[in-house]
Amino acid sequence: MKVSLVQMNSVSDKAANIAAAKALIERAIAEDGPDWILLPEQFDWAGGARGDKAKNAETLPGGPAYAMAQALAAKHGVFIHAGSIMERIEGEGRIHNTSVVFNRKGKEIARYRKIHLFDVTTPDGASYKESETVKAGDAVVTYDCDGVTIGCSICYDLRFPDLFQALAAKGAQVIALPAAFTLQTGKDHWETLLRARAIETETYVCAAAQTGSFLVNNERRETYGHSLVADPWGHVVAKASDGIGIVSTRIEMAVVERVRRLIPVAQHRVALPRA
Questions:
Q1: Fewer beta carbons under 10 A from the terminal one: N or C of the chain?
Q2: In whole angstroms, what separates CA 79 from the centre of its chain?
Q3: Looking at residue 35, what DSSP letter applies?
Q4: Catalytic residue among 14, 58, 87, 114
Q5: Are strands 36-38 and 2-7 parallel, antiparallel or unpaired?
Q6: Do 184 and 124 contact (CB within 8 A), yes or no?
Q7: CA distances from 144 to 118, 174, 219 (A)
Q8: How far is Cα 173 from Cα 209, in angstroms, rounded to an integer?
Q9: Are 82 and 65 in contact (CB under 8 A)?
Q10: Maximal CA-CA distance, the chain
């Protein structure tokens, strides 16, 4: 299966972000002919003033970001894992941070709402309070992609191996991670954590990231980029350069099977008591 990861620099201009995502998807299809395309977290919106997220959220199914990904999946006969979209919640001031997946016919086949929310102060003093604007999901989600089981996660989920183990237990051979990792945490933790999750679950981990900067209430935020694919042995088999673009590679389920035969951690796992 051939996969393409889209790396973007989304800002507080929804129409521009959707146009950029569309252009990058079409470039990936023209240049690399992938079976499956992954967009980054919140490809449709980043930054702005307080309340802008809710104003620009979409009721799913529907909305311009949803419609763009759905239409391109159907037009080109490709699976599109639409990173994450801001999903409106009726009667709620917050939104969901939601991945939506479309099959080759443009049919929605999976929807995952981010479980772990980023309420953190990074080393540079920037404060992130995702839970103030986002409501957490609670479902572990996988889907079928031409016989390959793909698991869903988003950004901060990466730091919680229990979710990845749950996805592996549900049969995941590939785990998708759309992200907007901060520059401060990304430079030290991004690749290390992605490789660790791949090794622990013996899956391919495909991570599409935001890159560059955007403004939140006139405060500049920096994202790390470096979208990559880690194989089940923990090797990085594809990695994006800095800046906007795409990175593609072929992934082989035979590699997943071979690694799981060599070190059958799923069979050896022991359920430990929790205090």
A1: C
A2: 14
A3: S
A4: 114
A5: parallel
A6: yes
A7: 28, 10, 40
A8: 20
A9: yes
A10: 54
Does the active-site annotation cover 129?
Answer: no
CA distance 229 to 177: 10
Portion of the chain with pLDDT greater than 90, in percent: 87
pTM greater than 0.90: yes
Active-site residue 206, yes or no?
A: no
* DSSP-based helix, strand, coil % in the chain, nearest 5: 30, 35, 35
Instruction: Examine the residue annotation and report whether 257 is marked as an active-site residue of this protein.
Output: no
Per-residue pLDDT tens over the stretch 81-125: 999 999 999 999 899 999 999 999 999 999 999 999 999 888 878
């950004």: which residue's tokens? 155
Q: Indicate left, alpha or beta for 84 from its phi (over 0: left) and psi (-120 to 50: alpha).
A: beta
From the candidates 145, 152, 155, 206, give the one annotated as an active-site residue: 155
How far, in Å, CA of 164 to CA of 186, rounded?
19
